Amino acid sequence: MLIICNGTFKSGSTWLHAIVLELLRVNKIKLMDAPFDYTNNINSPTTIIESKLFKFLDNEDYINNNYITKSHYILKKTIFRDYDFDTYFLFVERDVRDAVVSHYYHLKKKYNFIGNFRLYYNFIGRFKAFEILKFNRMYLDSFGEDNFFKYSDMKNNFEIVLLRISSILNLKELSQNEIVSIKRNTSIAKMRNDLLSGKTKYYSTVSHDREGVIRKGIIGDWVDHFSKSQQIDIKRLESLDASFVFKFTYSLLFTFRRWLFKIE
Question: In whole angstroms, what is the distance from residue 24 CA to residue 124 CA?
Fold first, then answer.
């Protein structure tokens, strides 16, 4: 099987990926390493980049072997393709305001020039919010809600979400001890320690203090960052009915930049 842990940037896909890895470990399922031909960064958990996904599906035996990748797939040809029963897409959705705050701190960790949240939101954050809302709408339209997980449920109802994932992947029934073990091994503290020790490869493009990129994970952290006008603005963006100028600027900041620098 091929498991694709997909979500918009800073949505919780890293946590989802870690949970699935632990779930597979408990079930003693052997994972194969995807050949290096399918990634642009061998130090990343994104073992299959989007431009190489179809090639992977055509050439690799994922029916008799097991693979997993963490991803942010966004192309319509990927999202709206018909997949066979051995390909599992798992999606995670986070409150867009919390995702934007997390994106802000991620950029501050990588780039010294990122200023305060107000400036970030005006020039980057509101466009990132539009992208998150846009792609979550696409995911839901194509795949429906069955394989869609809310970050808030992962925080507040971990066991229920874990059992849902296990059922989707047709895995064995989990014992209470196994559930406790998976929760412990995917906690924020454990994931930070694994990054610090080099045990995991998340956020491989961050050159220093990678463990700090995994933040508090608090639901509602946006309250301490968003002004009233920013809350109104992001509420307006939920309709995706933005102006031509806004969409053009978004395309320059995100779509064109990805194409130009081959970012996946």
Answer: 37
